[in-house]
Amino acid sequence: MIFKKCDSFYFTFLPLEINRNTLNSYSNQREMQNKITSLFKIKYPIVQGGMIWCSGWELASAVSNAGGLGIIGSGSMYPHILDEHITKCKQATDKPFAVNLPMLYPSIEEHIETIIKHRVPIVFTSAGNPKTYTARLKEHGITVVHVIASSKFAKKAADAGVDAIVAEGFEAGGHNGREETTTLCLIPKIAQEVQIPIIAAGGIGTGKAMLAAMNLGADGVQMGSRFVACEESSAHINFKNRVIQSVEGDTKLTLKDLTPVRLMKNEFYNKIEQSYVEQKDANYRAELLGRGRAKKGMFEGDLVEGELEIGQVASLFDTILPAAEIIKQVIQEFEEAKALQNSERFTF
Ligand SMILES: Cc1cc2nc3c(=O)[nH]c(=O)nc-3n(C[C@H](O)[C@H](O)[C@H](O)COP(=O)(O)O)c2cc1C
């Protein structure tokens, strides 16, 4: 079969006389194959973002088994816990999976040793300088992806030799860029600036959004919030229920003087905001945050005093589904939306 490169996908090359409808039905039948599926050796260019307290081995293996790339979020794990999660993930899937290594947290050296020992094939680094660990990981044959939120850092990551980047827009849950660039503006800008594959993140939870991101220049998508409220996520059921009940405007980017993070509004969030009104300094907020807030909120289910990281897209969903069902729905919707692009709605 001959493949011809066309934006983010490789479409089957067909004779010119075949009309557009025929082309649609041919291309719907083809296997998705692009830079991201080839790089990770997966079926669909869908990545489940690494997420502290939410993405352990159950979620990562479920996503990988469903054809996406599952990621274990090591940020909330002690080294022996990460070891256990990798071991269980390898038992639960024979498909590729990754570990997310946020450079914010301690234990990073031990985590790297564990990743190398287990021959984890892919690492997503985030929240730090991509130069620090890329060469070392790649020496061990590991594919390295770095998460960025601006074109300046996209170029730095490409210069550091990473294999792909996650470009994460302002809508995203969790830690976020200070520039507040939305996914809609970030992806095309980064596509102009770097040649390596781009995985779009932030506000993506549906097949329509996936198609939009790929039309803007992404080669795949990373979804976080959509997988928080999923059966295999290790988030506390209180948090999952809060996520699916959320409405527009329930999240806000805050703590910009520490590490900017998008949170669900609650009593803890109100205390942070009040501290800005009272012009308290950053040390006060660092103390307020303490060490256990994220665990308290997302893992232990304290919806009042805990830190609840979630993205704007959460308000779109109202059901807790298995990961495989989410991927199936996203792909189905992606194909439907792609077919619609050739309909009269898009003809002027
Ligand atoms: C609860 C939660 C925890 C997260 N933790 C991490 C993390 O530990 N490391 C990281 O690189 N990104 C983290 N993220 C970001 C996700 O990996 C992903 O990029 C982001 O959620 C995508 O945007 P979305 O929330 O709009 O889907 C987190 C996101 C959420 C919602």
User: Helix share of residues?
Assistant: 40-55%
Distance between the termini: 34 Å
Q: What integer value in Å does the Rg equal? A: 20 Å
What is the number of E strands? 13
Q: Count the DSSP helices.
A: 15
| Ligands bound to this protein structure | flavin mononucleotide
The largest β sheet comes out as: 8 strands, parallel
Quick one: CATH superfamily of the largest domain?
A: Aldolase class I
| Tally of distinct domains | 2
Features:
348 residues; three-stranded antiparallel beta sheet; globular; binds flavin mononucleotide
Give a quick summary of the entry.
This protein has helices at residues 20-29, 35-40, 57-65, 79-92, 108-117, 134-139, 151-159, 183-193, 207-215, 225-228, 237-245, 267-277, 282-289, 293-299, 323-340, and strands spanning 3-6, 9-12, 46-48, 70-73, 97-102, 122-126, 143-148, 164-168, 174-175, 198-201, 220-223, 251-254, 261-264.
Model description:
With 348 residues, this protein is α/β, with parallel strands linked by helices. It has two domains: 34-234, Aldolase class I (TIM Barrel); 237-312, no CATH class. It is 41% helix and 16% strand. The protein is built from 15 helices and 13 strands. It has helices at 20-29, 35-40, 57-65, 79-92, 108-117, 134-139, 151-159, 183-193, 207-215, 225-228, 237-245, 267-277, 282-289, 293-299, 323-340, and strands at 3-6, 9-12, 46-48, 70-73, 97-102, 122-126, 143-148, 164-168, 174-175, 198-201, 220-223, 251-254, 261-264. Helix 9 (207-215) packs across helix 15. The longest helix has 18 residues, at 323-340. Bound molecules: flavin mononucleotide (FMN). Residues 49-52, 54, 73, 75, 100, 102, 126, 147, 168, 171-174, 201-204, 222-226, 228, 298, 309-311, 313 line the site of flavin mononucleotide.
